[in-house]
């Protein structure tokens, strides 16, 4: 879904949520931004603008290595020099 001129701008109010403040995102804007419940986001402030973006996933080395299987290893049977390698 892409944002249309109708959904690019919307005025809403800041509400209290416990000891914090909250802004409700309309469904069409959340869907267009790829946001859903429980998705991690990064919040930044520049001047008087608050920006919310999906957080990029981060993986530990252990998590990356745990995902390596014999099926997803590259084929290195033909590992001949291809360029200006220094041997």
Q: Can you describe what's shown?
A:
The chain has helices spanning 5-8, 27-32, 61-66, and strands at 15-17, 20-22, 41-46, 49-54. It has 87 residues and is of the alpha+beta class. A hairpin with a 2-residue loop joins strand 3 and strand 4. The longest helix has 6 residues, at 27-32. The radius of gyration is 22 Å and the shape is elongated. The mean pLDDT is 85.
Strand order of the largest sheet: 1-2
Rg, please? 22 Å
End-to-end Cα distance, whole Å, is 52 Å
Approximately how much beta-strand content do the residues carry?
A: 15-25%
User: Uncertain runs with pLDDT below 50, 5 residues or more?
Assistant: none
Main pleated sheet? 2 strands, antiparallel
User: Structural class of the helix and strand makeup?
Assistant: alpha+beta
Shape annotation: elongated
Supply the number of helical segments: 3
- Output the helix-strand order: HEEHEEH
List keywords for this structure.
alpha+beta, 87 residues, two-stranded antiparallel ribbon, 21% strand, 18% helix
How would the blueprint of this fold be written?
Layout: H1 5-8, E1 15-17, E2 20-22, H2 27-32, E3 41-46, E4 49-54, H3 61-66
Antiparallel strand pairs: 1-2, 3-4
How would you concisely characterize the structure shown here?
The protein has 87 residues and is α+β, with helices and mostly antiparallel strands. It has helices at residues 5-8, 27-32, 61-66, and strands at 15-17, 20-22, 41-46, 49-54. The protein is 18% helix and 21% strand.
